[in-house]
């Protein structure tokens, strides 16, 4: 039976060594729901995501994924359970072509390799045009699309995205936003992302939270009308 909340975080605190960065965070994400966390530089957004995926240990609280307590579970096991993490910075193998970048992930799935590859290409059709181009020669936006497509090949239950619009041209930002909405609505993937660009993060999300100095200072339902509200909270 699928858990009501794909991700449930209760009282989470984390940081680096003795330095606490994120404190007493509660947040949940249901299957097929897009939840955004917005905040300015230094708010603790990336630190929070790293703890969710297991790259930083929790110093307090708990993380439950698909009904299983994963607070002390290693990152690679969380990934095998169905988490996918797309870190900041358009990660790909620059000397490999777009096709090779996708196939190196898809080929792990044997008989399902081609269907998974095709699903990733369908999510970002522009990648077909550049299938034979080395990833290092793509624009920042195209590399980001490739990074998300690689993660989609794993057929995740939860997609975690860190600043997916950083350094990306506006027309591709809109394409990525549409693709994320489709992940949630059409594929039932739970989506959790952090962003500074409030319009991108909030206007098509289901819910949002505002993070400042490691704590939530505001929250609400997403939508076009919520963009101004979120910006106002960030300015407080």
Automatic annotation (TrEMBL):
GO MF annotation: an example: ATP binding
SMART domains registered for this protein in UniProt: AAA
Keyword Cell division: no
Domain ABC transporter, first and last residues per copy: 7-236
GO biological process: L-amino acid transport
Keywords in alphabetical order: Amino-acid transport, ATP-binding, Nucleotide-binding, Transport
Lineage: superkingdom: Bacteria
Family indicated by similarity: Belongs to the ABC transporter superfamily.
Protein name: ABC transporter related
């Amino acid at each position: 039976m699928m858990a009501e909340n794909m991700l449930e975080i209760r009282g989470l605190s984390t940081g680096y060594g003795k330095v606490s960065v994120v404190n007493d965070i509660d947040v949940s994400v249901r299957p097929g729901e897009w939840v955004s966390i917005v905040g300015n530089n230094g708010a603790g957004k990336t630190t929070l995501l790293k703890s969710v995926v297991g790259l930083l240990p929790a110093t307090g609280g708990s993380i439950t994924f698909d009904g299983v307590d994963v607070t002390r579970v290693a990152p690679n096991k969380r990934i095998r359970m169905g988490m996918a993490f797309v870190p900041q910075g358009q990660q790909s193998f620059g000397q490999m072509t777009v096709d090779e970048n996708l196939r190196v992930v898809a080929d792990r799935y044997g008989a399902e390799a081609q269907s998974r590859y095709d699903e990733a290409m369908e999510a970002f059709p522009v990648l077909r045009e550049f299938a034979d181009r080395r990833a290092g020669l793509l624009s920042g936006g195209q590399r980001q699309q490739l990074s998300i497509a690689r993660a989609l090949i794993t057929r995740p239950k939860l997609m975690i995205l860190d600043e997916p619009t950083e350094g990306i041209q506006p027309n591709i930002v809109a394409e990525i936003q549409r693709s994320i909405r489709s992940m949630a609505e059409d594929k039932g993937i739970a989506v959790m992302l952090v962003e500074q660009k409030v319009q991108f993060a909030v206007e098509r999300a289901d819910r949002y939270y505002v993070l400042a100095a490691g704590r939530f200072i505001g929250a609400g339902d997403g939508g076009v009308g919520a963009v101004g509200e979120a910006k106002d909270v960030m300015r407080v």
